[in-house]
Amino acid sequence: MIDSKAKVLMTNLRFRTMYQLPPHIIGPSTTLRDLLIYRAEKGLFTGNIDDFMTDVLERIAKGKPSIRELPLADGRVFRVSEQPMSGGGWVSTHEDFTEQRRAERILARTERFLATIIENVTQAIIAKDARDLRYTFVNRAAEKLFGLSRAQIIGKSARDLFPAETAELVEQQDRLLLAGNLEVDVAVQTVATPNNGRRTVAARRIRIPGDGEESQIFISMIEDRTDQSRVVETAA
């Protein structure tokens, strides 16, 4: 807690521990600048102190709240929330946000890793919104199977893309999933694709429940077995 001139009025133990502030640093005449100078000497503040003080005093004068993140040289990340007090003072709360940021980075890397795998597998991977049965995602193999770009597929329904016979077959499988089945057994079928002729495929379909019916997703994993079927027919 500081006054309108950035003089330190109060700090709690948690704040002093986070920034490794010894007891003698906090005194009756201590200012925010004093704390910043000490933190900079210990490698716990990055940036220009004068610029930082100018920004703080401007925010105090305007009474403008702010939330920002401060990266430290030791790798920690603190989230600082500032709020004006009546009478011109200023209260800032400091939260160690390091683990949350680390978890977010790990999640982002995992998502990129999975996206790379999904995009490059040989099976066609297709996601569909359970509410309107429109396609929300297809991978590269699905584009090849359909003979269409994903821009031509996303947002469309089976009726928009397939001949009537195949569209009816797809919708039949959708109805099984909508009826409460979490998975439809693998089925080998011959379908008429939008732009790639008739293909023999093995499709496995699953329903991924969400928090409610509106967040459910259908996932189809389709293997194109057309070439295998032709080899069998030729051998026969």
Name its key features.
single chain, 39% helix, 8 strands, Beta-Lactamase, alpha+beta, 3-stranded antiparallel sheet, 236 residues
The best one-word shape is elongated
Q: Structural class, from secondary structure content? A: alpha+beta
Terminal residue distance: 85 Å
Quickly count the helices: 9
User: How is the biggest beta sheet arranged?
Assistant: 5 strands, antiparallel
CATH architecture of the largest domain, by name, is: 2-Layer Sandwich
Rounded to the nearest angstrom, the radius of gyration is 30 Å
Strand arrangement within the widest β-sheet reads 5-4-8-7-6
**Care to count the β-strands?**
8
- Uncertain parts: none
Assigned CATH superfamily of the largest domain = PAS domain
The averaged pLDDT comes out at 89
CATH C-level of the largest domain: Alpha Beta
Q: Please give the share of residues in helix.
A: 25-40%
How many domains, as an integer?
A: 2
CATH topology assignment of the largest domain: Beta-Lactamase
Strand content: 25-35%
Commentary on this structure:
This protein is of the alpha+beta class and about 240 residues long. It has 9 helices and 8 strands. The protein has 2 domains: about 15-100, Beta-Lactamase; about 120-235, 2-Layer Sandwich (Beta-Lactamase). It has a 5-stranded antiparallel sheet, with helices on both faces. A 3-stranded antiparallel sheet has the order 1-2-3, with helices on one face. It is elongated, with a radius of gyration of 30 Å. The model has no long low-confidence stretch (mean pLDDT about 90).
